Amino acid sequence: MAEAAKTIAILGHIRPDGDCVGSCLAVYNYLTEQVPEREIQIYLEEPPVKFSYLKGFETISQNAGTGKIYDLCICLDASDKARLGDFAPYLDHARHSLCVDHHVTNAGYCEKNEILADISSTCEHLCHFMEKDRISKAVAECLYTGILHDTNVFKNSNTSGRTMEIAGMLMDKGIDFNRIINESFYRKTYIQNQILGRALLESITLLDGRCIFSVIREKDIAFYGVTGSDFEGIVEQLQITAGVECAIFMYEISDHYYKVSMRSGDKVDVAKIASYFGGGGHVRAAGCSMGGSVHDVVNNLTLHIEQQLNAREQEI
Ligand code: AMP
Ligand code: MN
Ligand code: MN
Fold first, then answer.
1. DSSP state of 185
2. What is the pLDDT of residues 211-238, one digit of tens each?
3. pTM for the whole thing?
4. Which of 288, 297, 301 to mutate to test the pocket of ligand 1 (most atoms within 8 A of CB)?
5. Which residue's alpha carbon is nearest to atom 7 within ligand 1?
């Protein structure tokens, strides 16, 4: 597809994460190197600055209104059209479209859809479409970043032997993996640590300690001056609490409207719950947006969590 296209738009999902930014820039750099003389443009909401070491980061555009019609639109790591945010018109108007993704809830919204739900990340999936010998150090940095972030440094259950082989191949390209892990994953700003501390301090356990939740309100978001990406890692920290099967972290994006993140151990299918509330994701990591009081939102979610936990207990 990319060989014939003279103009290519690359899109990811709203509130871009490591796999989103990594996959967009991996494709951008690979195509720029392999099929030069193409006009390629990435459109994303402002990506976290911690990914600025990736080649091409500064070329990412936030302009949703150019009205440009592309020969090909490539959608990466976005499980449905709504996740493309304001940039969806580039897909609507493109002559051809391709989606590469790994979300179990992705029903396929492009002309061609390469979706593999059992794989760690879009970046791992992309490696299957790239010739190993032609992966440059710059492309390897992008792919490694994406895999690293979606596996939580190779610890999540979505990490396979193949994931590690691919990571090894990328390390052999000479990337500074130690710096990438420390600076893009573990490094936190002072404010990020403060908001993490606040979320942990105010967390509440439910369902006999099998569920934990925490919320950050709009007024606190304004007080600390934080944005969506500053909350990365909070839900994972809640999830590692002993005895917890399912963690919920939410932050208020507008009055009584929340961005919800869920993580689970091996008993709860959170993709199913997130899909029910109009979101999506993976079996062990999913999200959605919900309105109402915190009490209502948590009650609605825990009802589903409890049902699943009870069903599992009856099986045993
Ligand atoms: P998060 O909790 O935002 O880190 O997201 C966990 C996983 O669920 C990621 O793979 C997201 O792409 C996916 N996800 C989060 N929110 C939504 C949503 N509103 N709709 C579809 N998928 C989502
Ligand atoms: Mn993502
Ligand atoms: Mn991903």
1. I
2. 999 999 999 999 999 999 999 999 999 9
3. 0.94
4. 288
5. 286
